[in-house]
Specification:
This protein is an all-alpha fold. It is built from eleven helices and no strands.
Length: about 280
């Protein structure tokens, strides 16, 4: 009876071995056959590896761009220590990365409990975390950065140039000099949203800030004081370089004039910064 059981076990072992050497790999990120066809490893016209072919020798990985071109997370282990994580021809034998990376995220303040998460959610395949990894949770910010990020989108490390750790942002002045002169807040995000820096919040700009560049306008207000002197710049200038419509505030000043005539206000009142100066 024991001989029969022993014989069955031998047959099962041989069957499993045959399957393991003739079936394609089942990695968590399968290699595309287009990269491997025509090599000594895989037959691109077959659904399985050539019969009798064992898992490719580590030396062959040097010629496999699908693997070698994507690995930077464990680069120091390639190509001769692949079997530290992978069985021959199979998915990683260790699905729990914590066996090697103990408390890794406690050190980097990523802010998630990796004991309940799959590492490959952010660390796809063999690569380190990328901008595309951030997009999975921060799609709004990612889209804004890619479409309206201006110079911020051109940074080599993109997201990681400012966010060196999860939920952390560097101070703007670590990269930028003071560009608006004194008297203006150095908290750039009061006006500039980091992912859309050129689409800034103009309504929070103060007259003192405008004065840094437009001292000639301030002098006009001082030389010809009127009610306009008590109005905030952004009441008339809704965004930079735009000019408000006089009729928005002065619709009943001259009843004999129609709205279409209001564009002629400057004909009598001159510049809006000195409206009492007629002529």
């Amino acid at each position: 009876m024991r001989r029969i059981i022993f014989g069955i076990l031998i047959v099962l072992c041989l069957f499993y071995f045959a399957y393991s050497v003739t079936s394609p790999s089942h990695l968590h990120a399968d290699h595309k056959m287009e990269y491997c066809g025509g090599s000594d490893c895989h037959d691109v016209d077959s659904d399985a590896c050539p019969g009798g072919l064992d898992f490719p020798d580590a030396d062959y990985l040097e010629y496999c761009p699908q693997v070698m071109g994507s690995i930077n997370l464990h680069a120091q282990m390639v190509p001769y220590e692949c079997d530290r994580c992978h069985q021959y021809g199979k998915k990683p034998m260790y699905s729990n990365c914590n066996l090697c990376h103990v408390e890794h995220h406690d050190l980097t303040d990523v802010g998630i409990d990796i004991s309940d998460s799959e590492c490959i959610t952010c660390h796809s395949s063999h690569t380190l975390i990328t901008d595309e990894s951030c997009e999975k949770c921060h799609s709004k910010e990612y889209d804004e950065l890619k479409t309206q990020g201006a110079a911020h989108n051109e940074l080599n490390n993109s997201c990681y140039s400012c966010h060196t750790k999860h939920a952390y942002s560097i101070k703007c002045l670590e990269c930028h000099d003071v560009v608006h002169g004194s008297g203006i807040s150095t908290d750039c995000v009061e006006c500039h949203e980091p992912h859309t820096p050129t689409d800034f919040n103009f309504t929070v700009v103060t007259a003192d800030q405008c004065e840094q560049c437009h001292i000639d306008v301030v002098n006009e207000f001082m030389d010809h004081p009127t009610q306009h002197s008590n109005v905030s710049c952004v009441e008339c200038h809704k965004d930079h370089k735009s000019v408000g419509d006089c009729y928005d505030c002065h619709e009943n000043v001259h009843p004999q004039l129609s709205e279409s005539d209001m564009d002629k206000c400057s004909g009598c009142h001159g510049d809006a910064h000195s409206p009492s100066r007629f002529g």
